[in-house]
Amino acid sequence: MLESQWSAAAKQNRLYKPDRDSEFIRFADITSFIRQRILLIMSCPFIGVLGAGFYVATTDSIFTARTQILIEPKIPHLLQKQSSEINLSLDTSQVETQLAVLRSEKIAGMVIEELGLIDDPNFQPMNTLSITERFERLAGMAPKPPDQNEGSQNHIVPPPSTAADVTETADPTAEALEFQRRRRVIETFSQGLGVQRVGVSYAIDITFNSLDPELAAKVANATAGAFVREQLETRAAAAQEGVAWLEKRIEEVRLQMNLATQMTQEFRAKHDYRVGRQLEAAIVDGQVVPSGEGEGVTPSGPTLEELEVTAETYRKMYESLLAGFTNSVNQQPFLIADARVITPATRPLAPSHPRNKLVLALGVLAGLMVGIGLAFARHTLDRTIRTPRQIRDELGLDCVGELPAARFLRGFGQLDDVLRRPESPFSRSLRNTKAAISLADVAHPLRCIGITSVAPGDGKSTVASNLAALYASSGVRTLVIDADVFHSALTKRLLYAPALADEKSDSIKEQIRFVPGLQFDLLPSQASAEHRLITPRNMEVLIDELENYEVIIVDLPPFTSGVHGLAAASVLDGVLIVTEWGKTPVELVVELSRILQVAKTSVIGVIMTKVRGLSTRQYRKRATQSAH
Prior knowledge:
The chain is of the alpha/beta class. It has 22 helices and 14 strands.
């Protein structure tokens, strides 16, 4: 029998079909989501701003100086007649070669020696600080007494002592430390130097990052100057090597030319076509040395024509080398570099890193994205009652009321708020709930209304008391039955419970008490327990005896107190389910509604209490619509 009742209840629940647009996200759903999670969504951007501010406050300001040089390519005359593709490939290789030269340690060493960066205390590496170091720096920004500042300054002095210790060490150790120190300076220079080509042009940007703006400009200009100077020095060295080679070669050719000329003259003087020595005789200190002693006259030798041709050849070679030597000597003072500075570096006015506004904006944006993500995750994983649409989709019931908290973070409200503060959002919402109850689609008029909930703290007793006060204030004779014998909130807060315990009467009507100020009658929980009103038969007999009351509101036990406490709901005209916004699980409400359906109880609807997702403007709009 019980299985058939559960099957019928489940079938009745499946007959409900949600709205057509329940699967679509509406603008109202988005605004409701934002209102419900506004604290979480807005707290994350605030934390993001704090994190960004902490980063900005504890990060060193880095200044970037920029200079620009122009490369003037020198293409050979033969290559100028080739196609443009060849010229472009050569230009690209040439510019990339110059970029590599700019990044070389040779340029770094020239700049370091020129500016004395090894001994410059302002030339420091730009290391990324750890979280601990950032907190220590933030703590150091706080103002300190003068004695503490002096102590801290005295505490920073140790570097000179370490330098003294280094000088006292052995020479090999000092050389090793000096080498390491120079390598660190070169690495710091390479870390701060930036070289890049401007588009596809021959211009090259040279940037240098430093903690000191003046030093950044000096290093950038010195780097450009060192690059131009390195080109001149390289060309001058190449020219000097060429001149030295020409000098040596000219001397050799001159001696050979003199020997050939002397041999020709000797041949002519003897009127002989033979000479007494070979053409390849050695020459020492400008004198012809015989190839060997005791040698006689060679039987054969060069002719006059050969000697004249050899002498003429050496003479032409000598003249050619002498002309080249003259050109090299004349062009050496006019060596010009292939690069020139077109924009010198100046002292930067503002730091390039960190970019405070951008960091703060990114902090706000990142915090907002994290906040929305956390809010969406929490909304997805949240299985509590929050919206009327959720009640319709999950339970198949109507939401007849949304009651806000009477005081912010101070509970739900008092038992007489509708009379003490009739214009509060809570009172207006409860009046709208009363109107919705009167318009509920039930089989018979609602005279006996039961109010239950999932847990004791959902606010069902507050709803029952204030709803009864509304009926009573409108001239309707109203009775409230406190059937929640496990908690007895109405009896304890509206009547004096110890005095009631002493009064005993056989007639249940004699135990009904009038509640001063609320204008309705109350049947205490002691009488309900004594007469076992949780039994449907006893409740039905009592309702028949109380014909003089137009409205009877029964405060039923909550679902967590046991299913047997809801048995009396089957003889009532309808039951209201009270849920706490954002706390009552959907699964428990579904189970409670199924139990009521099994008991063949008409569920009027669901009332949400302690709602924080509905604005006052919406309450006023609903109140206006209900008034019309």
